[in-house]
Design brief:
Blueprint lengths: L4 H4 L3 E5 L7 E2 L2 E2 L15 E8 L2 E8 L6 H18 L3
Parallel strand pairs: 1-4
Antiparallel strand pairs: 2-3, 4-5
Length: 89
């Protein structure tokens, strides 16, 4: 990806299935898991999804040069709202 990014890639998306059951460390339950999509040179936007114990977290990581990330965020919000309506929630 690093060798050809500047010519072909402007966004990458990753979906990582996490554990279906909660994790514990030293007697404390891990409440949340948030993915971080690290950016590589010449790839300005990374989106990561991670499932954990019945929840789904999505994060967006952008280069400082990306100025319209709010449009992407609103699209995600609208998409998840529509998904919830479709699922009957």
């Amino acid at each position: 990806m690093r060798r050809t990014a500047h010519r072909h890639i402007n966004l990458f998306v990753t979906n990582v299935p996490g554990p279906a059951r909660p994790l514990w460390l030293a007697g404390a339950r891990m409440l949340d898991a948030v993915p971080v999509a690290p950016l590589t040179a010449d790839v300005p936007v990374g989106v990561a999804a991670l499932s954990y114990a019945g929840t789904l977290a999505v994060s967006v990581n952008v280069d400082a040069a990306v100025t319209d990330v709010d449009i992407l965020a609103r699209g995600f919000d609208r998409g998840f709202t529509d998904l919830g309506v479709t699922a009957g929630r």
